[in-house]
Specification:
single chain; 381 residues; mainly beta; Methylamine Dehydrogenase, Chain H; 4-stranded antiparallel beta sheet; 5 helices; YncE family protein; signal
């Protein structure tokens, strides 16, 4: 009964009052779906009836694959082609807008049209700049602002979504850029919408090169950074919106905020570890922020926290070789347990992103090289 009640609350919060609210069952058993192309990320509608998967083809042509939930089983329904690659996604809290970062621009799609197979689901795209490497997107809870990490341009682009929709998705919707160090990727907005957290894989070249290269021909490089950004400031003066910066291990690539907004979890891919930061401590001073290192396995990328706050899961990609196949790794007992419990689930084929269905229990993983989307009910504690 608690699960049903939780889903009902989510639906009431996320779905437009003009929509007909419904709730679809979640998979009761582990399942996987083969897709055409390489799935990057997956986000579910609040009613659990649809899953939107960003897919990149062999020639970098992207699409959004729409999966329909039929009696607890997700099945491919249709795909909406994009004019560029498809990478990190963000679904607005009101459930109306989907943003998909993709190379030189970020595509925006109307979710209602996307669900019903309309050819006009693609509203337009916001330009990030040639060669910018737009890789991740984050929409603020009020759906006013879109942040996009431009991995190769050393910046985070800030867009006015209302202006974008009224002005025809041209460059005028750009508010400005937040300067970043080398290779910004991960983005997460705090539940109250006050803060944006962002990772950069490497700090400035003036920092000491303490991280080993991830690939054989690479060089030693500085550790990456975790930035805390004032959202209100970023909406008017992005260049001066960074409030504080912390060292965040070797090649931090994703960040997730706990449901209560009190903790941050960061995957340090080059260091083969998951990092835990205490936000209250960070507000007191940088020396109080980092509270944990967890060496879960090779090359962690995606990270997701269960809605009940009891578990955090990561995608161990094994991206740069080694003798271990990819897998999903979890830490349980985050709330009050005397000792954290480590868990693992098989997921070979470059698991890239992880997220949870609205039931708060079923983990979704995109297996990039295996061309599959995997569904796994996480264990109760």
């Amino acid at each position: 009964m608690k699960a049903i009640y939780g889903i009902a609350v989510l639906c009431a919060w996320f779905i437009s009052v003009n929509a007909v609210a419904s709730t679809c069952a979640s998979p009761g058993q582990p399942a996987s779906i083969s897709v055409t192309g390489h799935p990057f990320s997956a986000v579910a509608s609040a009613d659990n009836c649809w899953l939107f998967v960003s897919v990149t083809g062999d020639e970098k042509a992207g699409s959004v694959l729409v999966l329909h939930n039929k009696d607890g089983a997700f099945e491919p329904d249709h795909a909406v082609p994009l004019k560029r690659s498809a990478r990190g996604e963000s679904l607005s809290r009101d459930g109306r807008l989907l943003a998909v970062a993709g190379g030189d621009a970020t595509s925006l799609l109307d979710v209602s049209r996307l669900e019903h197979g309309g050819n006009d689901a693609l509203l337009g795209a916001l330009p990030d700049g040639s060669g910018s490497g737009a890789v991740y997107a984050a929409i603020t809870p009020d759906a006013k602002t879109l942040f996009v990490s431009d991995e190769y341009a050393k910046q985070i682009s800030v867009f006015d979504l209302a202006k974008a929709q009224s002005a025809g998705f041209d460059g005028s919707a750009l508010i400005g850029r937040i300067p970043a160090a080398n290779f910004p990727v991960g983005l997460a907005v705090s539940p109250d919408g006050h803060w944006l957290y962002a990772t950069t894989q490497r700090g400035p070249d003036t920092m000491a090169p303490i991280c080993n290269p991830e690939q054989k021909r690479g060089q030693m490089h500085p550790q990456g950074l975790l930035m805390r950004i004032d959202v209100a400031k970023a909406e008017v003066d992005p260049a001066h919106a960074i409030v504080s910066v912390l060292p965040a291990g070797c090649n931090p690539v994703r960040v997730a905020v706990s449901p209560g907004g009190t903790e941050l979890w960061v995957t340090a891919r080059g260091g083969n570890e998951l990092l835990r930061f205490l936000i209250d401590g960070w507000l007191e001073g940088t020396e109080h922020a980092k509270v944990g290192h967890f060496p879960l396995g090779p090359s962690p990328v995606g990270v997701a926290i269960r809605q009940d706050g009891k578990q955090v899961w990561v995608a161990l990609s094994s991206r740069f070789g080694g003798d271990k196949p990819g897998q999903l790794a979890g830490l349980g007992g985050l709330q009050g347990a005397s000792q954290l419990k480590q868990m693992s689930i098989s997921a070979a084929g470059f698991p890239r992103e992880v997220s949870f269905l609205p039931d708060g229990r079923t983990l979704v993983a995109t297996l990039f090289d295996a061309n599959q989307v995997q569904f796994v009910p996480t264990p109760d504690e």
